[in-house]
Amino acid sequence: MRILGIDPGLANTGWGIVDFNGRAYQPVLYGTVNTSADMRLEDRLSEISDKILSVARENNVEYMSIEDIFFVKNEVSAIGVAKVIGALCFAMHSINVPVSVFTPLQIKVAITGQGRADKSVVQEMCKLILHLDKVPRPNHAADALAAAICLGNMGETLKRMGVSNKRVNIG
């Protein structure tokens, strides 16, 4: 299965595509969509969703996995991230790509086995799981790859449990 992982952000949205055959992962592509703070909100959301939609179409993505909002103190940036998540979920719906939303804790557990793993540990595990020579950069792209791997791992678990609905929302 081909999975598009997303690390949403208004300034920087990371994306990463992996192929998963039930046993091993193969990296396909990864990168970021960057928008400027001097752009209007609707233009930023449009640019992010248009670019991610284009990546999904050009690479025949079958599933999308997106990291959910995690905010401690900055509610304003959390609202922006929520808008990006909404725009991307709508974009994927328009091309019939099922979306799963995972919390940062779920992604960390799926990648490292520990919910309190440091970001650098998650990124190093992505490197190992994807058999890359170095940790993917920029960081947002590495986090997106982790989200994609999380869906692959979770999908295998659900399959073993006998759950076959492609549209199971984990988050």
Which secondary-structure class do the elements indicate?
A: alpha/beta
The CATH topology assignment is Nucleotidyltransferase, domain 5
Strand order of the largest sheet: 3-2-1-4-5
Question: So, CATH architecture?
Answer: 2-Layer Sandwich
Average of pLDDT: 89
Quantity of strands, as a count: 5
**Rg measurement, Å:** 15 Å
Shape: globular
CATH class: Alpha Beta
Largest sheet: 5 strands, mixed
User: Helicity, in percent?
Assistant: 40-55%
Total DSSP helices: 5
What is the CATH superfamily classification?
A: Ribonuclease H-like superfamily/Ribonuclease H
- Strand fraction equals 15-25%
Assembly state of the chains shown: single chain
Give the low-pLDDT segments.
Answer: 165-171
Order of helices and strands: EEEHEHEHHH
First CA to last CA: what distance? 20 Å
Number of separate structural domains: 1
Question: Could you describe the 3D structure shown?
Answer:
The chain is of the alpha/beta class and 171 residues long. It has one domain: Ribonuclease H-like superfamily/Ribonuclease H (Nucleotidyltransferase, domain 5), CATH 3.30.420. 47% of the residues lie in helices and 20% in strands. It has helices spanning 41-58, 75-94, 104-112, 119-129, 139-161, and strands at 2-7, 12-20, 25-34, 63-67, 99-102. Strands 3-2-1-4-5 form a five-stranded mixed β-sheet. Helix 1 crosses helix 2 (75-94), helix 3 (104-112) packs across helix 5 (139-161) and helix 4 (119-129) packs across helix 5. The protein is globular.
